[in-house]
Amino acid sequence: MEQREEGVMRAFRESAPDEAGLVQRSWVNHFAWTLVVLLSGLVFWLVVAVVNAENQRNALASKQCRDQVFKEEIDRQCMQSVQSREHWWQHLYYAMKHTKPQK
After folding, report:
1. pTM
2. 19-42: b or e for each residue (b if 16 or more CB lie within 10 Å)?
3. For residue range 9-36, what is the model confidence (pLDDT) as tens digits?
4. How many secondary structure helices (H) and strands (E) does the chain include?
């Protein structure tokens, strides 16, 4: 019986997982996810900047923020709070569609 038990125990030991490899860490996945998060944050920041720039450009082009006293000047407080289109995605769509200045 002891030989049979030894054979079963040997088969069990060989089929057991390698405990040294269970704790091993891979940094490749962490690096990839960190890169995805950082690039997503950068894209979000650039979208916000483009939307704000296009909002102010459209307000200047449509003369929505003229100074009441000096007609040729710009009201700077108006430029900070103006909404020249109804939604932010309209600014983004226009900015992505019109990449070259109009002649």
Report:
1. 0.67
2. eeeeeeeeeeeeeeeeeeeeeeee
3. 877 777 767 776 666 666 678 888 999 9
4. 5, 0
